[in-house]
Amino acid sequence: MKISEIKERKVIYRPTPDFDRYGKRIYHAYEYYLPYNPGFKGNETIRLFAKWIDMAIFAIIFFYLFNKNPVEAVLLSIPCVIVSGAITEYYYGTTLGKKIFRIRVIDDEGNNPSLFTSLKRNFLCLANFYPVFSEYTSKTVAMGWRRGPQVNFSMNLNNKICTTYIVKESRMEEIRSLLDSEQPENKKQIES
């Protein structure tokens, strides 16, 4: 079984126009099996910081050992991060930056990605740094409603193309147990 084939059971209660003899509304329960998402909320920011940590290590090496100026050091660190990230994800499922945040990369079978897949997803990370600007609105007690610009980085393009997932290391046991189990069919109605 593959992660993309795993379904998660959700029960949704929908009200009916009928009431029971005590005046309480009668609900129908609908059971759905939705696609399982092994990722976690907010992983884009964590992945961005992990990539910066990996780049900072190579930039420091180029700056201090090879006496490059800071701009050259950062530019030279980009291909090094792509190649080293592909190799370490292939062998260990993680890079140094990802290891600090306790996240790892897995393929659709729950294993470390292949070297080609890992190289492709690390090369596609350059497209992930395209910022998406949006506007946020928040309410504060002192100032009322405030609006301002918000920058989001879309860090999911490489995972969608390569069919890989960024997961927390603590969820690996749960994912492996779900990969070993059988999955039921979709949408059944339960009377309640």
Report on the structure:
The protein is 41% helix and 30% strand. It has 192 residues and is α+β, with helices and mostly antiparallel strands. The strands form three sheets. Strands 1-2-7 form a three-stranded antiparallel beta sheet, with no helix packed on it. Strands 3-6 form a two-stranded antiparallel ribbon. It has a two-stranded antiparallel ribbon with strand order 4-5. Helix 1 (43-64) crosses helix 2 and helix 2 (70-92) packs antiparallel against helix 4 (115-128). It is flat.
Q: Strand order, main sheet: write it out.
A: 1-2-7
Largest sheet at a glance? Answer: 3 strands, antiparallel
Helix content: 40-55%
Give the low-pLDDT segments: none
What is the chain-wise order of helices and strands? EEHHHEHEEHEHE
- Strands, count: 7
Radius of gyration: 23 Å
Anisotropy-based shape = flat
| Share in β-strands | 25-35%
* Mean of all residue-level pLDDT scores: 86
User: How far is the first residue's CA from the last residue's CA?
Assistant: 33 Å
Number of H- or I-type helical stretches: 6
Question: What class would the helix/strand composition place it in?
Answer: alpha+beta
Features:
3-stranded antiparallel β-sheet, two-stranded antiparallel ribbon, 6 helices, 192 residues, alpha+beta
Secondary structure layout plus pairing:
Blueprint: E1 7-19, E2 25-35, H1 43-64, H2 70-92, H3 96-100, E3 103-107, H4 115-128, E4 131-140, E5 144-153, H5 157-162, E6 164-168, H6 172-180, E7 188-191
Antiparallel strand pairs: 1-2, 2-7, 3-6, 4-5
Helix pairs in contact: 1-2, 2-4
